[in-house]
Amino acid sequence: MSSIDIRHIVFDIGKVLIHYDPQIPYSRIIPDEAERSWFFANVCTHDWNVEQDRGRSWEEAEALLIEEHPEREEHIRAFRRHWHEMVPHAYEDTVALMESLIAEGRDVTMLTNFASDTFREAQKRFPFLTLPRGVTVSGEVGLIKPDVEIYRTHARTFGLDPAATIFIDDSPANVEGAQAAGWHAVHFVVAQRLRADLAAYGVQPLDVLDGVGPAVATQA
Fold it and tell me: Which long-range contacts (CB under 8 A, 24 or more apart) does 150-155 make?
């Protein structure tokens, strides 16, 4: 793979550069584990949250659930209200790796499933999210990974050659979506593994990981 000419590196954000876990605030809001599991399986589900990533407003999203579960109104509204607690820290080792690629002059962009308003909030809390050349936010383009069209949209927007692009994502389905769009892609697990995966494609970042922890808390 080292013979491949990689000229564009595209990072996912959630669970690659910053941590995301909705259980964090809800372990306090709904202390009972069985009740909390039921809530996420039946009320604020993954599929419900994905529609905000696709561009649906929080107001509409909350109204739909409150109509179905009026007794859960406070728990439903808590999802957006306490969203900042769901993203408590950055993965400093991956961030350092991305920053080293940018410092070397590599073309780095980001492609993320994210609601528009929470992404802008995340950029304020985690300034390194402003360092890449640009970002495609699903909630702003009305498309979500792993829909092939979002990768094509990103490539058109930033002038990427798919055959010279590598994508980094924690979701195997999103990796497959990128590959279906003609990109190279790797499944993110940890930063050290990512470094090796990039090296296999001929991308050799500066050695920035020694002594960097896997995740360091960032001030809200």
Answer: 150/111, 150/177, 151/111, 151/177, 151/178, 151/180, 151/181, 151/183, 152/181, 154/10, 154/109, 154/111, 155/181, 155/183
